[in-house]
TrEMBL record:
This is Putative ABC transport system ATP-binding protein. Signal peptide: none annotated. It holds the Pfam family ABC_tran. GO terms for molecular function: ATP binding; ATP hydrolysis activity; transmembrane transporter activity. The lineage of its organism: Bacteria, Bacillati, Actinomycetota, Actinomycetes, Pseudonocardiales. Residues 5-233 form the ABC transporter domain. GO terms for cellular component: membrane protein complex; plasma membrane. The keyword Hydrolase does not apply. Keywords: ATP-binding, Nucleotide-binding, Transport. The keyword Protein biosynthesis does not apply. It comes from Kibdelosporangium aridum. CDD domains: ABC_MJ0796_LolCDE_FtsE. It comes from the Bacteria.
Amino acid sequence: MKPVIEVSALHKTYGSGETEVHALRGVDLAVWPGEYLAIMGASGSGKSTLLNVLGCLDVPTRGTYKLDGIDVGDLNERQLSLVRNRKIGFVFQSYNLVPRTSAMSNVELPLVYAGVGRKERRERAMAALEMVGLVDRAGHKPNQLSGGQQQRVALARALVTGPAMVLADEPTGNLDSESTDEVLAVFDRLNRIGRTIVMITHEDHVAGRAARMVRVSDGQIVEDTSQWRRTGALT
Ligand code: ADP
Ligand code: MG
């Protein structure tokens, strides 16, 4: 078995000179298939920067990132966008749904970009909506859905391409406790069927759902509840 995510000596510096910010300062991390990992840490510690690099939304200044065994640093823009579309599902705190467009069409969107035909798109989008328990809301527009339901649509959109992993940046940050429970139940279900999940949260009870917790401070990993996995001792 090989890690889904393998980063080593990862650095990310924003700006230069006076305004230089070292957002990541030497991060080593391996995430194995089927793991559910929570990333915690104070505001400004580098969590989103790390997740954006893992999601190929940002490139590191130094260090390597292997995704499913592929060195992401070797890929050109076109290959990167393929990787983003096929291997990664991203969920943000703000749901980022297309307004005035049905839940179904929102979920279909990544498949449109992937060039999947209409009939298959419908089937796969419906299956993804079923996974998040929203088949009966397929025709609803975002403004006709609660926050928790909108986030579940966003999660269905992240899942519809069958990604190797789902990355989530404070997905319950805008939600009340009931909606938080609904969304976390979907993540639990996903993990039970073997999906790899990396989720940023600053709430202990949210992080408690994950089997493993990594704490980031000042651009470095300062705690990892399963150190032994990082050395590959399991394999
Ligand atoms: P967190 O998600 O843990 O709150 P971030 O990863 O967003 O932290 O930010 C880490 C540090 O990098 C912060 O000091 C932040 O101000 C800085 N930073 C993040 N993004 C940028 C950017 N695009 N340009 C400049 N500085 C940035
Ligand atoms: Mg953040």
